[in-house]
Amino acid sequence: MTKKAILLIGFIIFKFVLQYSLISSDYDLQRDEYLHLDQGHHLAWGYLSVPPFTSWISYIIYLLGNSVFWVKFFPALFGALTIVVVWKAIEELNGSLFALILGAIGVFFSALLRINTLYQPNSFDILCWTTLYFVLIKYLNSKDTKWLFIGAIVFVFGFLNKYNIGFLIIGLLPAFVLTEERKIFAQPKLYLAFILGLLLIAPNLYWQYVNNFPVIHHLKELADTQLVYVDRLGFLKSQLLFFIGSFFVIVCGWLALFLYKPFEKYKPFFWSIVFTLAVFMYFKAKDYYAIGLYPIYISFGSVYLGNQLKEGWKRYLQPVLFLLPLLFFIPLYNAFFPNKSPEYIASHAKPYQKFGLLRWEDGKDHLLPQDFADMLGWKELAVKVDSVASTLPDLEHTIIICDNYGQAGAINYYSKNKKVIAHSFNADYVNWIPLDKKIKDVILVKEGDDDDKERKREIPIFDTVYLAGKRINKFARESEISIYVLRGAKVDVNKRIKEEMERKKNYQE
After folding, report:
1. What's the pLDDT tens digit per position in 228-247?
2. What 3-state DSSP class applies to 422?
3. Checking phi first, is residue 212 left (phi over 0); if not, alpha (psi -120 to 50) or beta?
4. Is 37 exposed, middle or buried (0-12, 13-18, 19+ CB in 10 A)?
């Protein structure tokens, strides 16, 4: 085994070890993770929230035992594979051993460590961006048209994971037009690759069509509720932070595409980052949408610097470039990861306040960062709901209705009682509520800020309505959750549920 192979394996092993150490056992999964895991029990070609790829991984996790280990394994795997792709890109660019190590360190100690802690589509999205750019390097280097078809396959997986990869294509098209590599558009096999990709994503496009394109509603809702607050200057500032320890390497790689003769054939990459960032800014996209742009530029920068710093006094700058990502990572390690207990964070708030991490979407400071608070109280909620369910005599005709997908998904993940499944009229759960069994009793899970604590809406339609328990956790994002029991339905509950499902679906359309 070569020295290069040993080093790469070392980076991969260290990646997994570090990822598992970044989350304290005090925390549960994050609310989005529960939704993605439940999608694995409802396989389809599309969902209201995401394309289908994540559900396929969720199904694999279920087959492997559905443990937290496997939930965290896949984002860590996608992060490790991103390092591998950058490594291979550097080799394709004839980079030195120094360039390989610099590139691996740059990707390793970056925002990917935070992203790879959560089971969300973002980790695979970044991997697909990086891989598609690598495929383009292979094509520009060899002009072998097989890479066009491989690129189409990579795009398909990226598209079926997250539609965000469409921005990559939008940025690349004008970038190729502006350079001599525009001759790619005269290559017939490019259009055959396009047709192949279109055929492979057609089932998801058809699902969107049949369901009245919920992605459009999702984008409109996102624009109205979140993107409207995005500051374009703030977007650019955030780009500096994602790979702050390797920012110099990225800039060198970007400039080298225009100034360094061996990179002349890769000039489309120079314009690609310009156009892609411009499109993101025009649409006021969230800052992290652009993270997939940067790993490939670390490849270019590492190779360029490896060639520029190999002789004379410049060699002594090499260790500095190795150390920079690590030095920037140390303060981030102490504040940006849920590796301390909630009690510790609450009593050592200054480092978190310094970075503005305690400020939530409501503009106020809280005890914990919002993401951390969203990883607390879920297991406790499931235990309490199980306890309430155990007091009911007829679970075959009982249903759990929750306020949101986080509650429903957490109950389904942690519950020991599999006779009754949690549902919600929120997100994808609105499509999964079963209407094939007669509902007599309901366990109602409500957030603490609910305006009908006396359940005046439900009292007229059930024989008995009572508060059965509460889950209170001052550190959790939902600090108080109430659990009600509604017994002895006086009306057709199935009909009421169906009407509410239709109302929610119509709203989403």
Report:
1. 556 677 788 888 889 999 99
2. strand
3. left
4. buried
